[in-house]
Fold these 3 entries.
Entry 1:
Amino acid sequence: MKNAIMLHGTACTPNSYWFPSIRGYLESVGYRTWVPQLPDADIPDLKKQLPYVLENGEFNEETDLLAHSRGCPLALSVLEHIDTKIHRTILVAGFTRPNDESESDPILQKRYNWRKIRQNGGDIYFINSDNDPWGCNDKQGRYMFQHLGGTLIVRHGEGHMGSDTFNQPYKEFALLERLLSLP
């Protein structure tokens, strides 16, 4: 059976932004969905979130993994730690490097096993905007694309594609629905 796992970003919930509408869409076309409230969402930490997702998520050849913002590096870490090739991975406003090289971010790995992520990620899509106010922009998308291949979609003027701080409610996400309708 098709299943989808959706991972939210910082200070978010399974009801933030486009998550409810995409969950509804997926369920209407026969997916079983898991949209967890990630632990310590206000300060995402890979040491806490990765074990939670690995222990509670179901990964198989029919799994679609979707993530937004800080859920994206978590999704990449999940792909690196599972031993199953999934169907598809879609990362929205994703990143793998801190904006300031001197910063560290507890959701990021120091290094990624790009080969294993590519092997397990299925069809990989990156959706980034050219004006993301948090720095999860087209440069971050290109960096991941260069390491993993797949499909890079750069949205113009779409910001973070969901942000209370920058008044981007993004309640629906037609592009994401179209990608999920692909076989």
Entry 2:
Amino acid sequence: MGKNDFLSPKGIANASKAKGLQKLRFYCQVCAKQCRDQNGFKCHITSEAHLRQMELFGQNQSRFIDGYSEEFLKEFLQLMSISHRNSRVAANVVYNEFIANKQHTHMNSTRWTSLTEFVKYLGREGIATVDETPKGWFLTYTPEDREEKMRQQSQKRKQRAQEDASARDARLIEEQIARAAKERADRGATADAEATALRRDDDALQPAPLLFALGGAIDKNKQKRKRVIEPNAAFGEDDDDATKTRAVDMKKESAVASIARAGMAAAAKKILPGPNDVTIETSIPWLLPNLVVKITSKALRDAGLYKKKARVVKLADGGFVGECALLDEDLKSTTARVDQAELQTVLPAVGGRVAVVKGAMRGKRGTLLSLETESFRAVVDVDGEARKFEYDDVCKVVAADA
């Protein structure tokens, strides 16, 4: 058995020394090599491989430093989002957890020379909330909420679809009205041309003859006039000129009005919900006991309740106001009365329990089967049947003693 064999006492000792975190000052970030002592580090920095790497580093130092800085920031924030999400924690505690990983990016290879400078950078860029205390620097990292982002995208998509439909319907109505006006103008020009061709100038200078009709002729004319006027009973038989004027106006307006009414009816059919759609009225309460909701009232920001999750304990004001108990460990005993307009629904993980809060199935409970991110719908098992709901129509529910 040779002295370099991994089963030899020396090989076993070397393997045990290589385990775990070693001194950071003997680590070469450029070569990604950890040395056990000062002698090993000195031998490494004088080696040919290290000198070649340093020669490449010297050609473009800013690119290497920026790359290491981005990696350090990404790994640090990832640790914060997993271990200390939405919680206030000391910067030294997070840094000790970060450097416990043997393969982490070392700070001495980044643009920040100390942890204090890095923490100040996070606060200056608005990445995290930082505050200095006699016990040191503290961090509060609040990453972007994925559920809220998906809800905002769903609302924007619906608004864009409604705007596109309204603009298209308005354009169609305008085109129909313009086409009807053009046809009416063409008919009017044709009628004027025919009348001009039949009228003589000398007839216009002569007074109109007076005609007298007796007996049956008057009755026959009245009968003809009655047949013309009967569809519109609001006009009298004596006002012949007014009746004819109104009848002509009605004939002129009927084409445009009918086209406009047809366009408005088509637009109403597209905008109004169908028989299978659920129409949500703002005057209908959707809160239910034991729902898990998110507080979106900016008035409660100073109290530290903004964007906090809570459980609805009981309802008030006809169901429009909920008395909410905070789920945060630091605010476990805190309760607040919040209007439903300043609360948002929360979706659980797949397999969690949900309650239908809006629509005809309000109050039904089921299990979340999956999420359709493209159509922004949640598939829920209700009474043994898979049904699809909008994200805002269902909400996470917990037991009463939770």
Entry 3:
Amino acid sequence: MRPFRPILDRLHQAGLRPTRQRMALAKLMFEGRDCHVTAESLHAQAITHRVRVSLATVYNTLHQFTSAGLLREIVIDAARSYFDTNTSDHHHFYWEGTGLLEDIPSDQIIMEKLPSPPPGTTIKRIDVVIRLAGCTK
């Protein structure tokens, strides 16, 4: 169980029960560098690593991880969401030709003027997605 200790600790700290499927999916996402995954790409990765899990379970797990603060959901359009393991403040380039999502450090975008939020609300976070066409990465 030693190789799973960091993953186990992370799930416990987030208040999530470490089921076999959560552990396996968390291991795929959180070991190594930060990554952007879709439910479909994570499901394919799980199958490649011989993790038996349904696509519905992958969707549910991604949303549970997001609610627990382990992931950040980046909505590209009504049909496509990415889940980012980097939950710090930052923005994204989206390569429309390939579907690649790439981080932009938050200090590279300067917001000079924002509208006032509606009464009774506050701005929680600002997400900027810059869509790129032409050359593919």
